Amino acid sequence: MYTQDGTPNDPWEGFNRGVFRFNDTLDRYALRPVAQGYDAVTPQPVQDGIGNFFSNLSEVGNMANGVLQGNPAIFGASLGRFLINTTLGLGGFLDPATGLGIEQRDEDFGKTFAAWGANSGPFVMLPLLGPSTVRDTAGLPGDWYVSATRHIEDNYVRWGLRFIDVVNTRAGYLDQEQLIHGDRYTFIRDAWMQRRQFEIDGGQGDDPFASGDFDYQEPEPASDTPSQ
Questions:
Q1: pLDDT of 26-62, one tens digit each?
Q2: What distances in angstroms separate CA 8 from CA 12, 60, 64, 171, 197, one per listed residue?
Q3: How far apart are CA 74 and CA 82, in angstroms?
Q4: Alpha-carbon gap, residue 165 to 210, rounded angstroms
Q5: Which of 170, 172, 159 has the alpha carbon at shortest distance from 130?
Q6: Among 17, 84, 35, residue whose Cα is nearest residue 56
């Protein structure tokens, strides 16, 4: 994810910036206004409940990746959370498992590939999906396959749930936009890479965002294309 000198492994920056501009434009004129309207009319407890519901559904993928990683702790915690939150948590809209000390372990096939020893490869900005790496991108088919909503046969229900999940998630980031400063592409790339490295390392060490130690380096003034 980083080069030997500790800089972001972003050899395709010119291409990535072009994709970032596309995503940013789509967000500014489509997704963000919808999220703002949703945030304005939806009480915070309802948003939290919807977030809990989709978080609970993601435990299915967490369990699958726990098995593939050969990590019984991940599988056991994910299974326990799913059973507790689905029953005591009213179908997942509440999160009593966290109150019982069972913390969620967000897993995906990118992290599973990392556990198998695969290198991250260069950073890549994906259309619509945002920041990723070559390794994480290779894991997307697996993530889609184990997604609980993928197995819903009714297309309207399946895509409706995905739309609600996207809008609810985007609404949750509205208050954080003020934290972005300087070059938006560089800030978002570096923030994502530091957070992702923390996740790949299994949450060992200090979370750079929870501790306030996020390391952002203001780039030299330049055009959108990287210097040669």
A1: 999 999 999 999 999 999 999 999 999 999 999 999 9
A2: 11, 32, 30, 28, 11
A3: 12
A4: 24
A5: 170
A6: 84
pTM over 0.90: no
Distance of CA 56 to the CA centre of its chain: 15
Helices (H), 58-179: 59-68, 72-87, 96-99, 109-115, 134-138, 140-146, 155-172
| Cα 37 from Cα 190, distance rounded (Å) | 29
How does DSSP classify residue 11? Answer: T
| Distance linking the first and last C-alpha atoms of the chain | 21
Confirm if 135 and 120 have CB atoms less than 8 A apart: yes
Could you write out the three-class secondary structure of 153-192?
Answer: CCHHHHHHHHHHHHHHHHHHCHHHHHHCCCCHHHHHHHHH
